[in-house]
Design goal:
The protein is elongated and about 120 Å long. 63% of the residues lie in helices and 10% in strands. It starts with 11 loop residues before the first helix and ends with a helix. It is α/β, with parallel strands linked by helices. It is built from 21 helices and 12 strands.
Length: 583
């Protein structure tokens, strides 16, 4: 939690005034038993039966009411300051988390996992936020009440104060034992919650697949197992937590019995008055309630400690892909300089063998590069190195003669239009989605991109056209429509380098052919990189790269590869007849 205190730097006033108000309330609360004891001993004792008795009791009662009103007002101020600080800090933590997550490369995002990051930004931050509020409200008050009550009992009866001290020690030891054993279990609970998030995400996003294969019962079993594990872990920590209240109340009530017993003896001997015993019981009750508050606060801080650790884990995760410079560089746009070059590139995700090994190829400005190969050959991995979603292990990737690692992120990605393997649309309108590359794109530019992507026909038939609503993930569009919309989005702003990562897979052959023709006509001067499984998609590319197990086994035109690359020939013959291949 201490590492997150930086988010409270703009709420120093609230963090100081709030506890002071609560401290003032505690002082007033400690005065009430003294006023009550005086009313009992004087107003109902010494002055009982005299004309002064009733006014004295009323004055004492009025003073206690005044103390209560002042205490309530002070508590309301504390509540306001605590809410302001906790909500503000929680907002800042979420904002900082989101900003930091966006600096992480795909490698870190893959390691942390989307469901876990969502849980950390919601549940864990809420836990920390609640702890901040409770700390401002109670951390000062509860210890002060306990210590103040002990001091007040010492002023009334030093002998009986030993009973208070013994009860406080017993309760304190119990708190320490429960806290030390609960923290690891709360951390485990958060991991179990992450697991439920993963399974829930898979089930909700893959609901159609699950129903198609009638796997509802199997998935229900997975969910039941995950929730049962969370429940068992919660029961373990609840059993520990359940010890707090019984031990606290038992110690307090035993102390009260001892006070009544030994206090009664002292009253009979004249060492104490009746009001003193009432005051001592009141102070014991205050200690009991304060101890219960401390117990709950300890549990809350134990939970938030586990949550804060998970939040700090994200903040402490350093991105493996970082900017070397922030000022733009001057690329070499000479005709003899390749637009895109892979120079002896090797890459590894961090485990096992290299996914790419010694890949070298060059693509000139205005050319189209087709990348083909078997499943798992490294096609998507190769194109993900261009915009620096990952960094190479060895070698370098160059755009316009400059290493992509020398570009600022903004300059590098401004010149690249990317269509990812998974067609991702965001909730909002079509216009909002299409303007992601260029926020000020005109409707004419959007329509031109839609026409090139073969998407204008179905968009123009929509009742609201470009203002049509897009549901989360683009659920209200078919797979082929989503792919074409994603291609149109990448084309807006006319990027100099267009990357299409298996973006024709959901298109029929006629649309595929029409789209390739439109791209050739409308993106002249731009360099295109097309990853595909279909030979027909890359057949007419200026250069074709053939990958096999992460190695470049062929590079050239279709005719050159047919005669010189056995892997490419096998792929062609698996999809086309010998006559179509041109063998």
């Amino acid at each position: 939690m201490l590492k997150l205190r930086r988010f409270l730097k703009d709420y120093k006033k609230e963090c100081i005034i709030g506890p002071l108000c609560k401290l003032f309330e505690a002082i007033l609360e400690l005065l009430v038993p003294l006023v009550m004891a005086d009313v009992i001993d004087t107003g109902l004792g010494t002055l009982y039966g005299t004309p002064e008795s009733a006014p004295y009791v009323l004055r004492g009662g009025g003073l206690m009411v005044l103390l209560a009103v002042l205490g309530w007002s002070s508590a309301m101020f504390t509540q306001y300051f605590a809410s302001k600080a906790s909500q503000g800090a929680g907002t800042r933590i979420r904002t900082a988390l989101y900003r930091h997550i966006n600096t992480l490369s795909h490698a870190e995002l893959d390691r942390l996992g989307t469901p876990s990051l969502i849980t950390r930004m919601t549940n864990d931050v809420n836990q920390v936020q609640q702890t901040i509020a409770m700390t401002i409200r109670l951390l000062t008050r509860a210890p002060f009440i306990i210590i103040g009550s002990l001091v007040m009992t010492m002023t009334i009866s030093p002998k009986l104060s030993l009973i208070f001290l013994a009860a406080a020690v017993v309760i304190g030891v119990t708190l320490y034992l429960v806290m030390s054993r609960s923290i690891p279990i709360f951390s485990l609970m958060q991991k179990k919650l992450d697991r439920i998030g993963v399974i829930s995400r898979e089930n909700l996003s893959g609901a159609r697949v699950i129903r198609a294969f009638s796997k509802q019962n199997a998935e229900k079993k997975r969910v039941d197992e995950a929730t049962d594990e969370l429940a068992k872990t919660a029961v373990r920590v609840s059993r520990l937590s359940a010890l707090l209240s019984p031990v606290t109340y038992a110690a307090a009530y035993l102390a009260m019995i001892a006070i009544l017993w030994f206090g009664g003896v002292q009253v009979n001997s004249g060492e104490l008055r009746t009001g003193d015993i009432i005051a001592l019981i009141s102070y014991m009750t205050q200690i009991l309630l304060a101890m219960v508050v401390v117990a709950n606060l300890v549990l809350l801080m134990t939970k938030s400690s586990a949550s804060a650790k998970r939040i700090n884990e994200v903040f402490e995760t350093e991105p493996s892909v970082v900017e070397r410079r922030t000022e733009p560089i001057q690329p070499n746009t000479a005709e003899d300089v390749p637009k895109l070059e892979f120079d002896n590139v090797s890459f590894n995700y961090g485990e096992g063998d290299d996914e790419l090994s010694g890949v070298s190829l060059r693509v000139m400005r205005g050319q189209t590069l087709g990348i083909i190969g078997g499943t798992g050959s490294g096609k998507s991995t190769l194109v993900n190195l261009i915009p620096r979603f990952y960094d190479v292990k060895d070698g370098c990737v160059k755009i316009d003669g400059a290493d992509v690692r020398d570009y600022p992120f903004s300059q590098l990605r401004e010149q690249i239009g990317i269509v990812p393997q998974q067609s991702v649309l965001f909730s909002g309108t079509l216009r909002d989605n299409l303007r992601m590359r260029k926020s000020d794109a005109t409707d004419d530019e959007l329509i031109a991109a839609l026409k090139t992507a073969q998407a204008y026909d179905f968009v123009s038939r929509l009742p609201r056209g470009l203002d049509s609503h897009v549901e989360q993930g683009g659920r209200n569009f078919s797979g082929g429509q989503r792919q074409r919309l994603c291609i149109a989005r990448a084309l807006v702003g006319k990027p100099g380098l267009l990357i299409l990562d298996d973006s024709f897979s959901a298109l029929d052959f006629a649309t595929d052919a029409a789209l390739r023709r439109a791209l050739n006509e409308d993106t002249r001067g731009a360099t295109a990189v097309i990853v595909a499984q279909r030979v027909s998609t890359v057949r007419y590319a200026d250069r074709i790269a053939v990958l096999h197990d992460g190695e470049l086994v062929g590079f050239g035109t279709h005719d050159e590869l047919i005669s010189g690359c056995e892997t490419y020939r096998e792929i062609c013959l698996s999809q086309l007849s010998a006559e179509e291949v041109g063998a």
